[in-house]
Structures are given as structure tokens and as C-alpha cells.
């Protein structure tokens, strides 16, 4: 039986999620898959990449309340700081690139 990791809300101690660590023997294959995915991404046109980032940006904007709540519960950061420090920064990166 594999040990699980508990993600807890630092304010309440409530378990938000139980995660199973990746077995050591699977890590190399995950890196290899990531390398092949990167090669596929490199072959995508700039226009299509930009469209993907714009879609991600829109998703972040549309889900900002859910995401800020999750970040707050996961690490104890106030929701406003989660929005301004994490989510707005990700939105800005998607817009810039």
C-alpha cells in the first residue's frame, strides 16, 4: 500500500485532498513523455500557441474566485493576495507572451 500525502488547510487543519506520490520507477518515463510533448509544442505555430495562452488567460479570469479560494485554502494566503500575487501574475504572463 502506497503512503498518501495530505494537503491541509493551514487555517483549520482540514484535509483538502489526499495525494499519492509518484512511484520512483515511473519518474524517468514521465520526464521522457514531457520531452516528447515539448517537441510537439515546439512544432505548433506561434498563432496557435498565442490562441492557447489567450484561452488559458480567459479560463483564469473566469475562474478567479474558485482559484483564489483554492490557493487560500492550500497555503493560508488571504484570497486577495492569492489573486494579486498568483492569479493576476499568471494572467499577465499569458497576456504578455
Describe this structure in words.
- The chain is mostly helical.
- It contains four helices and two strands.
- Strands 1-2 form a two-stranded antiparallel sheet.
- A hairpin with a 6-residue loop joins strand 1 (5-8) and strand 2 (15-19).
- Helix 2 (46-62) runs antiparallel to helix 4 (79-96) and helix 3 crosses helix 4 (79-96).
- The longest helix has 19 residues, at 24-42.
- The mean pLDDT is 92.
Write the layout of secondary structure elements.
Blueprint: E1 5-8, E2 15-19, H1 24-42, H2 46-62, H3 64-75, H4 79-96
Antiparallel strand pairs: 1-2
Helix pairs in contact: 2-4, 3-4
Quick structural overview:
With 97 residues, the protein is mainly alpha-helical. It has four helices and two strands, in the order E-E-H-H-H-H. It starts with a strand and ends with a helix.
